[in-house]
Each structure stands twice: as structure tokens, then as C-alpha cells.
Design brief:
Order of helices and strands: HH
Shape: elongated
Distance between the termini: 73 Å
Oligomer: single chain
Helix content: over 70%
Largest sheet: none
Structural class: mainly alpha
Number of helices: 2
């Protein structure tokens, strides 16, 4: 039982060291992820259309 109590104390000490992001940082990261995913999706869609056109014209 003492090991469990020590573990909980150690976990609390470690959690006190964690620096959580602010709302602004979370919002900026969210916008960045959405932007990158959108750009990559558009790029892949264009590559897919190009490859489909090439394959369709050769068949």
C-alpha cells in the first residue's frame, strides 16, 4: 500500500512540472493542422485527377 501512495505522490509531482498549452496556442495549432490537411488534400485530389486523365487517355 505504501508503494501505491508513493506512486501517487510522485505522479502528482511530475504533473506539476507539465506545462499545458494556453487556449491561444491550442487554437493556433488547430488552425495550422486544418490548413495543412486542406492543402495536402487539394494537392492529392489534383494529382489523382491528373493521373486519372492520363490513364483514361491512354486506354
Amino acid at each position: 500500500m505504501e508503494k501505491l501512495i508513493q506512486f501517487i505522490k510522485d505522479a502528482k509531482v511530475e504533473l506539476d512540472k507539465v506545462i499545458f498549452p494556453t487556449k491561444v496556442q491550442v487554437r493556433q495549432a488547430f488552425v495550422a493542422v486544418i490548413l495543412v490537411v486542406t492543402v495536402i488534400s487539394i494537392f492529392l485530389a489534383l494529382v489523382d485527377m491528373l493521373m486519372s486523365a492520363i490513364v483514361s487517355s491512354t486506354i
